[in-house]
């Protein structure tokens, strides 16, 4: 079979019309339609999905049929049959923009760039990004079919906030940034990673993301590799999904104890209302009673929306989502305690000591050379703060430093600057000088 630039793998299950819309969008790509193929994996379909190959598509389209085994198995099946050097995984409800394929290809071919605030200690020519270690995540703006209910508004905000974080040049990617609905990587990297875990039917993308980061893969966000996500999730489906996530997280915690601290099941209950804490207890200890209470709360959710009490509506929604997450956790624990899963967290993380007195340029270069998991930030003898290791996150890079100083440590950093220069915080010192960070860049 002729080698292609890319193979687009789409798992689908009885959603022929949506898959047809996705194929139509791919037929309108601005790049050559002979540079890529589409592999549609019909996972236990009974709706004549296979007939889509009879259409006259400008790009090669194949349909692979298999008994219903889940999206992870379908993606692995498509990857095994792919002829392309680059694998692009796409969900069947994504209507891609015309530049979608070209953007994925360009992102893998782009040179590795030094961050805008960083000048390498040694001048080296830019080298093409190595396809074998890059993972490119595309943009999925939600299309909510004209819905304007509170749940749809919340869903849109959640999606956009997630991608807004990835747009930040200083974003530190984690395992949970991998979205199976729109990402690409080389076939070599996918095969080396072992592919998707077919025993998982939820968070199988997170699990793969964890292994990829642990293996040294670099994640990148490509906003131009975009497609409209035709989102049909309603409240009932979201609650079912939370239950599945609870089950999946228990499996992840048992398989990767070092990841447990990053999972929702390890978080304190301080973000929950008293009602939410009671529901969480019932979910694990008395699920029968809990389901009855949850049903009443779900009816109250509609009342709150009608009354336009948005804050109370959102708090109750969070409690309900938490309830079903813990229902899934409780079912998977099988009578065991969640404390058994969280006991493996590291209580004494190793931090790399970083002195900022020599300037951000030198500090960023030092981070790039060491690639630490955690940092202890100082200005001489002055403590600015610590960045504790984050399970499942990529090692720190120099590009993360400026973002950390402008957000998490802005107050402590300004105070350190003012004290170091003998300037008063109340008389126009470094804290009130907008170019303090820029001046620090110039220090040698």
Describe this structure in words.
The protein has 15 helices and 12 strands. With 444 residues, the chain is of the alpha/beta class. The chain has 3 domains: 4-232, Spore Coat Polysaccharide Biosynthesis Protein SpsA, Chain A; 236-342, no CATH class; 352-441, no CATH class. Helix 8 (274-285) packs antiparallel against helix 9, helix 8 (274-285) runs parallel beside helix 10 and helix 9 (287-306) runs antiparallel to helix 10.
What structural class is derived from the secondary structure elements? alpha/beta
Helix content: 40-55%
By CATH reckoning, the class of the largest domain would read Alpha Beta
Count, helices = 15
Indicate the low-confidence ranges by residue numbers.
113-129, 424-444
Q: What's the total number of strands?
A: 12
Give me the CATH superfamily of the largest domain. Spore Coat Polysaccharide Biosynthesis Protein SpsA, Chain A
CATH architectural type of the largest domain: Alpha-Beta Complex
Number of domains: 3
Mean pLDDT: 88
Shape: globular
Largest sheet: 9 strands, mixed
Give the termini distance in whole angstroms.
56 Å
Order of helices and strands: EHEEHEEHEEHEHHEHHHHHEHEEHHH
Strand content: 15-25%
Classify the fold: give the CATH topology of the largest domain.
Spore Coat Polysaccharide Biosynthesis Protein SpsA, Chain A
Tell me the Rg in angstroms: 24 Å
């Amino acid at each position: 079979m002729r080698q292609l630039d890319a193979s687009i793998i789409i798992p689908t299950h009885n959603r022929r019309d949506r898959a047809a819309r996705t194929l139509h969008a791919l037929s309108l790509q601005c790049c050559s339609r002979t540079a890529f193929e589409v592999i549609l994996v019909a996972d236990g379909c009974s709706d004549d999905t296979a007939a889509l190959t009879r259409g006259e598509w400008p790009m090669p389209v194949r349909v692979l049929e298999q008994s219903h085994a889940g999206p992870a198995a379908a993606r692995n099946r498509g990857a095994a049959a792919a002829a392309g050097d680059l694998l692009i995984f796409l969900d069947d409800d994504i209507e891609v923009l015309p530049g979608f394929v070209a953007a994925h290809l360009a992102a893998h071919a782009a040179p590795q760039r030094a961050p805008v605030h960083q000048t390498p200690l040694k001048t080296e020519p830019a080298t093409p990004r190595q396809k074998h270690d890059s993972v490119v995540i595309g943009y999925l703006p939600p299309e909510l079919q004209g819905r304007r209910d509170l749940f749809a508004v919340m869903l849109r905000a959640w999606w956009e906030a997630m991608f807004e974080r990835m747009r930040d040049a200083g974003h530190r990617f984690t395992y949970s940034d991998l979205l199976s609905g729109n990402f690409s990587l080389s076939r070599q990297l996918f095969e080396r990673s072992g592919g998707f875990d077919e025993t998982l039917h939820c968070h199988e993308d997170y699990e793969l993301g964890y292994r990829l980061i642990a293996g040294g893969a670099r994640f990148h966000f490509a906003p131009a590799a975009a497609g409209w996500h035709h989102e049909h999730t309603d409240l009932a489906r979201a609650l079912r999904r939370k239950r599945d996530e609870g089950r999946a997280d228990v499996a992840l915690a048992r398989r990767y104890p070092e990841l447990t601290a990053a999972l929702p099941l390890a978080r304190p209950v301080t973000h929950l209302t008293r009602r939410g804490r009671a529901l969480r207890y019932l979910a694990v200890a008395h699920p029968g009673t809990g389901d009855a209470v949850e049903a009443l709360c779900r009816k109250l959710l509609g009342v709150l929306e009608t009354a336009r009490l948005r804050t109370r509506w959102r708090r109750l929604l969070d409690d309900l989502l938490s309830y079903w997450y813990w229902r899934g956790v409780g079912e998977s624990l099988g009578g065991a305690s969640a404390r058994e899963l969280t006991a493996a967290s590291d209580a004494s993380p190793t931090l790399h000591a970083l002195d900022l007195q020599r300037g951000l340029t030198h500090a960023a270069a030092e981070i790039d050379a060491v690639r630490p998991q955690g940092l202890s930030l100082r200005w001489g003898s002055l403590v600015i703060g610590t960045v504790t290791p984050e399970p499942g996150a990529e090692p720190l890079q120099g590009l993360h430093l400026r973002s950390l100083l402008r957000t998490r440590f802005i107050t402590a950093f300004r105070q350190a600057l003012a004290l170091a220069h003998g300037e008063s915080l109340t008389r126009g010192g470094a804290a009130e000088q907008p170019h303090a960070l820029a001046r620090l860049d110039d220090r040698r």
